[in-house]
Structure formats: structure tokens, C-alpha cells
Design the sequence.
């Protein structure tokens, strides 16, 4: 059905007009989804700080692995870096996710428990001589556990941050993330 008088452009009304509006709406929605996905891939704000801090911990792990299973005293810089990372995560990421509740609070709780567990295990390995013949296995195991902890953190906390925080709040907290 067309409308308009002589000399005026015909204007489509009815189902076609609705489809055109729907296509425009869908295109805008798709653009929003793509922008959100791109922001998640490139990690901005608090997510970026968490990734950077976790990457530093993982680089220390790779250095230790490259050198073979190091003596216990060589694990102290890793323990210090992991403690700084966990403290920074607690004071920013976990605190704010706890406030948001629901799945964000659950993710923060799991991360807190896992972070405390790997720090405790690393401390025990540094402070106590492992049973005879288990040194390499225990060192390799704790390095793998810490590596997995950081990877799980990035898989769970970063989506929660991106979902729960506004970009402004994320940028503000990124400045408060002690690196």
C-alpha cells in the first residue's frame, strides 16, 4: 500500500515499513554486540589491569619452568608477585563483584578460595622441605596450579567485570588496582 498525493514521493506503509525498521533495529543491536565483544577481547579498564597482573605472574612461572624445577628459595619472587596479584584482586575486583551479588559474588568467592589455596601451597613448599624424591613433582605441581588459577581467573572474573561494571566504574577501579 502506498500513500501520498500527486507529485509526492510514494511512501511504503504496512508490513514492508515494519521490516525496514526491524532491519535497522537489528543492525544497531548487532553493532552493539560487536562493540561489546571487541571490548571484551581487548580488555579495557579493570579487566585490562587484571590481565596484565596475571600475565606477569604467568611469565614468572614460565621463567621458572624454563630453568627446570628450581630450588625452593627461587620461588620467593613468585610468591611475592602472586601475593601482590591476589591482594590487588581482593581490594578491587572481588570487593566490587561481591557488592553486585549473584553469579558475580559466586565467581569472586571461588576466586578468593582458589587464590588462598595456591598461596598457602606455595608457602608450604617454600617453608618446608618436601619428602625425599618429591621436590620436582611438588614444584611442577604448584607451578601448574598457579598457572591454572590465573587462567581460571581470566575466564571467570573478566566476563563478570565486563558484565557487571559500567565502563566508567571499570576505569575508576583500574586506577585503584595496585599493580
Sequence:
Amino acid at each position: 500500500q502506498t500513500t501520498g498525493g500527486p507529485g509526492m514521493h510514494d511512501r511504503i506503509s504496512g508490513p514492508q515499513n515494519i521490516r525496514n525498521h526491524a532491519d535497522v533495529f537489528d543492525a544497531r543491536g548487532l553493532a552493539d554486540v560487536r562493540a561489546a565483544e571487541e571490548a571484551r577481547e581487548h580488555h579495557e579498564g579493570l579487566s585490562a589491569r587484571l590481565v596484565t597482573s596475571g600475565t606477569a605472574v604467568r611469565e614468572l612461572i614460565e621463567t621458572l619452568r624454563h630453568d627446570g624445577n628450581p630450588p625452593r628459595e627461587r620461588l620467593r619472587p613468585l610468591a611475592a608477585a602472586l601475593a601482590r596479584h591476589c591482594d590487588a584482586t581482593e581490594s578491587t575486583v572481588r570487593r566490587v563483584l561481591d557488592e553486585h551479588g549473584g553469579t558475580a559474588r559466586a565467581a569472586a568467592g571461588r576466586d578468593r578460595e582458589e587464590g588462598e589455596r595456591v598461596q598457602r601451597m606455595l608457602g608450604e613448599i617454600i617453608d618446608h622441605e618436601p619428602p625425599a624424591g618429591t621436590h620436582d613433582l611438588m614444584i611442577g605441581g604448584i607451578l601448574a596450579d598457579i598457572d591454572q588459577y590465573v587462567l581460571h581467573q581470566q575466564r571467570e572474573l573478566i566476563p563478570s567485570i565486563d558484565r557487571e561494571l559500567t565502563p566508567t566504574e571499570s576505569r575508576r577501579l583500574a586506577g585503584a588496582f595496585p599493580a
Observations:
- The radius of gyration is 25 Å.
